Inverse folding.
């Protein structure tokens, strides 16, 4: 039983960060009901199936007032609702915060957008790459002298978006347990990704480690020779990151590095030269040969694994870091708990498969459901 067992979360179907937050809730044992617009008769599974694992799925035509009424009835039984519409869309559908919280004053209403609910950009379209541009995050990711490199959509959509939505909604649910009142949680991927940059802003503000507002020249952005990715003899890669002096010393000892050359770890002017020398050295052995020497020590070296390799690494196998869900290897629910350990997730449901069962729990009988389906209210 996961730690969120007994909570009911309504998720209005969307893409990216809101479904990811819903997956986090479902992974932790909450009952997550995803409201889709797809026809249940299509019998199709969602494309992003991992983010839909462990959820229930109901199909409602929210352009019909009777479907809206069904959703509002569902809100009466829920702890939270999450949605990722552009600001104002939920209100126009009749399922905005005021509508839903009128039915359930304790309801937490989580809103996920890129720019936030207010501000001059709030109505503009955008994607992860745009949001992390505005927060300062994208500017700092990339090689010196080259253009910024988007880090997949991890920083905006999922780190700065979905995880902050999950954290905000859980925080508001805890507060509602004390106050008896729900509230709106306004999550902006710009602000979430800016929060992820807190340490870099601290270093820059304080001048710590000589941090500059440039990319590829600082300790943590591949400026330093001791925090870098190096190619090996077989065309694979190692990550090297012994920041602390004692760990750097161990790396030098294990690799037999010349102390007169590599002794001054923070001689910034020599970093590019030292990187070149390390690259030549790392090319003399295969990735696995270097791992035999360095991996698992305090030298802070690890192989750069592909998505096909990662689930097979002995450490990940030992911790069950990946699980088989419906015949597909997926990352396991995280984090782990000492007592209320989440169960292995169930595969993503067919869209709309739970409509009748969920609505029957709200008091709709078989005849009512058949009539609503015949009228296209239940899609």
């Amino acid at each position: 039983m996961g730690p969120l067992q007994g909570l009911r979360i309504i998720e209005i179907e969307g893409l990216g960060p809101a479904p990811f937050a819903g997956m986090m809730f479902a992974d932790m044992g909450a009952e997550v009901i995803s409201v889709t617009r797809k026809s249940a008769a299509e019998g199709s599974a969602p494309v992003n199936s991992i983010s839909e694992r462990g959820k229930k799925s109901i199909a409602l035509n929210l352009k019909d007032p009777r479907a809206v009424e069904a959703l509002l009835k569902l809100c009466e039984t829920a702890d939270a609702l999450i949605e990722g519409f552009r600001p104002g869309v939920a209100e126009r559908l009749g399922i905005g915060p005021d509508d839903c919280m009128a039915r359930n004053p304790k309801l937490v209403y989580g809103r996920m957008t890129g720019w936030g609910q207010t501000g001059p950009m709030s109505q503009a379209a955008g994607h992860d790459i745009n949001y992390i541009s505005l927060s300062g995050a994208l500017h700092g990711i990339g090689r010196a002298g080259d253009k910024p490199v988007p880090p997949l959509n991890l920083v905006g959509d999922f780190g700065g978006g979905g995880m902050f939505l999950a954290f905000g909604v859980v925080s508001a649910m805890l507060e509602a347990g004390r106050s008896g009142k729900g509230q709106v949680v306004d999550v902006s991927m710009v602000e979430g990704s800016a929060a992820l940059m807190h340490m870099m802003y601290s270093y820059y503000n304080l001048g710590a480690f000589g941090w500059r507002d440039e990319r590829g020249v600082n300790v943590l952005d591949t400026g330093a020779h001791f925090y870098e990715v190096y190619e090996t003899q077989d065309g694979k890669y190692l990550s090297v990151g012994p920041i602390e002096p004692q760990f750097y010393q161990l790396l030098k000892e294990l690799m037999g590095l010349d102390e007169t050359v590599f002794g001054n770890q923070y001689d910034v002017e020599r970093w590019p030269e030292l990187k070149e020398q390390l690259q030549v050295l790392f090319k003399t052995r295969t990735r696995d040969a270097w791992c035999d020497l360095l991996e698992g020590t305090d030298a802070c070296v690890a192989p750069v694994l592909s998505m096909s390799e990662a689930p097979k690494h002995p450490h990940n196998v030992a911790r069950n870091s990946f699980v088989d869900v419906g015949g597909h290897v997926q990352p396991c629910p995280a984090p782990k708990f000492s007592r209320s350990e989440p169960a292995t997730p169930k595969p993503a449901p067919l869209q709309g498969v739970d409509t009748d069962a969920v609505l029957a729990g709200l008091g709709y009988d078989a005849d009512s459901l058949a009539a609503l389906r015949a009228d296209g209210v239940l899609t």
Notes: The first helix runs from residue 17 to 27. The chain has two domains: 8-196+322-374, 215-231+237-303. Residues 8-196+322-374 form a domain with the Rossmann fold fold (CATH 3.40.50.10540).
